[in-house]
């Protein structure tokens, strides 16, 4: 299937589809691998996406793209959609292929979880619960909030600060930088004339953040703490150790990529629960439901909708289509998650769905290395919101969405509620 140049990309990135892209994805799945003439190949079905994610011939390194195969079809706001790399820094390991990807990912994972530090996330659970409780306590005296501004955004930024060991007195600066970077990625759809200025301010914030992180790295080198940044600085394994610029790039990746994904996971999750009040009531009465529920949210309405700008290192034949070397390939993860050839009744939200091998965190060597933390953050956040908000309801449906077609989520989610239930631990203590 060959389309007029740019037509599919323009449809996929058209803001008119942002609130509900799934009918468009259903149309695309009729042709598992579609091609915009002289443009990208669009892959929209589960098994084809899964196969390519595990195919070593598909590169994540944009330097392997043939420029003639990747014309600028996408509006500038979305061209910068998932740019977590900072100006002047080498690509993060998300943008590299093995063996260099494997070396950097292994070094980043060592202080983050198994097998080297298997209890890091477990020991964070109490701190995450306290942060969530403090944010919800801040709703006291209100009867309405914007979930994004008052909860979904500040929660993961605070977590990243604590994880990296940012001093608490510097956390407000970190929050301000994260706000500015997010604004630069996603201008207000009603104020496009401000997009260039927002990107300029965003680049300035990124530069200031890079300077701050560089200074913090040097402090941790001189006086290590028990935070993850100190562990990254001091860790040396069979792969060696990270250079200073690699440390800086990895820290920036943790902030931008990890933060934006979690904001959308929590916000999309609460939106889905409020649209399914019977499930919200079940979660309030049975907190154990949250584990399979978050997995279903990652399938049903994932925070990362697609992986653009992949490219074959050699010809790949898939679903009757030959994708040439150097071509641009877009993998529509969210479409694959709704593929009826893989999931029974895929447009239904079923929190106890069986065999839920979704693509919400990708798959293969580039599967999201922050997935365990994102899962834990979402599980705690949604459980406590369900438990403590009395009579929550949407004030706007559909809400206003961000312009970003890749990291898709509401820019605002206004909620009303009747009151707050007591906080504290399950036994009632504060």
Describe this structure in words.
By secondary structure, this protein is α+β, with helices and mostly antiparallel strands. Helices cover 45% and strands 9% of the residues. It contains 16 helices and 13 strands. The strands form four sheets. It has a six-stranded mixed beta sheet, sandwiched between helices. The longest helix has 32 residues, at 244-275.
Characteristic key phrases:
430 residues; alpha+beta; Cytochrome p450; 6-stranded mixed beta sheet; 3-stranded antiparallel beta sheet; 9% strand; Cyt_P450_sf
Please sum up the structure shown:
With about 425 residues, the chain is α+β, with helices and mostly antiparallel strands. The chain has helices at about 5-15, 20-30, 45-55, 75-80, 100-110, 120-135, 145-150, 155-165, 170-185, 195-220, 230-235, 245-275, 275-285, 290-300, 335, 370-390, and strands spanning about 1-5, 35, 40-45, 60, 145, 305-310, 315-320, 320-325, 330, 390, 395, 415, 420. The protein has 16 helices and 13 strands.
What strand order characterises the main sheet? 1-2-3-9-6-4
Quantity of strands, as a count: 13
How far apart the termini lie comes to: 60 Å
> Tell me, what is the CATH class?
Mainly Alpha
CATH topology: Cytochrome p450
Radius of gyration: 21 Å
> How helix-rich are the residues, as a percent range?
40-55%
Strand content: 5-15%
CATH-defined superfamily: Cytochrome P450
Low-pLDDT windows of residues: 72-84, 187-191, 426-430
| SSE string, helices as H and strands as E | EHHEEHEHHHEHHHHHHHHEEEEHHEEEE
Instruction: Find the structural class using helix and strand composition.
Output: alpha+beta
The CATH architecture would be Orthogonal Bundle
Largest sheet: 6 strands, mixed
The number of domains is: 1
How many alpha or pi helices?
16
Overall average pLDDT? 86
Shape: globular
Keywords: Heme, Iron, Metal-binding, Monooxygenase, Oxidoreductase
Region (Disordered): 73-98
Protein name: Cytochrome P450
Organism: Streptomyces malaysiensis subsp. samsunensis
């Amino acid at each position: 299937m060959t389309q007029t140049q740019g037509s599919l990309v323009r449809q996929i990135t058209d803001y008119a589809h942002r609130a509900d892209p799934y009918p468009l994805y259903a149309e695309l799945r009729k042709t598992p691998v579609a091609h915009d003439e002289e443009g990208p190949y669009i892959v929209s079905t589960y098994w084809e996406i899964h196969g390519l994610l595990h195919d070593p011939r598909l590169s994540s390194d944009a330097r392997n793209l043939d420029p003639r195969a990747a014309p600028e079809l996408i509006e500038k706001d979305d061209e910068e959609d998932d740019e977590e790399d900072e100006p002047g820094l080498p690509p993060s390991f998300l943008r590299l292929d093995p063996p260099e990807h494997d070396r950097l990912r292994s070094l980043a994972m060592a202080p983050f979880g198994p097998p080297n530090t298997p209890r890091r996330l477990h020991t964070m659970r109490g701190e995450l619960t306290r942060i969530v409780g403090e944010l919800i306590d801040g709703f006291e005296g209100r009867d309405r909030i914007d979930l994004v501004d008052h909860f979904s955004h500040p929660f993961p930024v605070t977590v990243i600060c604590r994880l990296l060991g940012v001093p608490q007195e510097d956390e407000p600066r970190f929050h301000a930088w994260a706000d500015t970077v997010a604004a630069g990625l996603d201008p207000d759809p009603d104020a496009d004339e401000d997009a260039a200025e927002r990107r300029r301010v965003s680049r300035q914030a990124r530069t200031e953040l890079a300077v701050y992180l560089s200074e913090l790295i040097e402090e941790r080198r001189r006086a290590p703490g028990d935070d993850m940044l100190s562990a990254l600085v001091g860790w040396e394994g069979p792969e060696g150790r990270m250079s200073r610029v690699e440390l800086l790039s990895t820290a920036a990746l943790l902030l931008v990529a990890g933060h934006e994904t979690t904001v959308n996971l929590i916000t999309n999750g609460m939106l889905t629960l409020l649209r399914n009040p019977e499930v919200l009531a079940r979660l309030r009465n049975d907190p154990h439901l949250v584990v399979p529920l978050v997995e279903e949210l990652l399938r049903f309405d994932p925070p990362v909708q697609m992986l653009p700008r992949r490219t074959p290192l050699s010809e790949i034949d898939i679903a009757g289509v030959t994708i040439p070397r150097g071509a641009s390939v877009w993998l529509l993860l969210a479409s694959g998650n709704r593929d009826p050839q893989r999931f029974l009744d895929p447009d239904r939200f079923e929190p106890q769905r069986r065999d839920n091998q979704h693509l919400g965190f990708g798959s293969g060597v580039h599967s999201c290395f922050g997935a365990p933390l994102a899962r834990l953050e979402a599980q705690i956040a949604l459980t406590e919101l369900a438990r403590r908000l009395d009579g929550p309801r949407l004030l706007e449906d559909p809400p206003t969405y961000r312009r970003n077609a890749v990291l898709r989520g509401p820019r605002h989610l206004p909620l009303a509620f009747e009151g707050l239930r007591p906080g504290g631990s399950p036994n009632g203590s504060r």
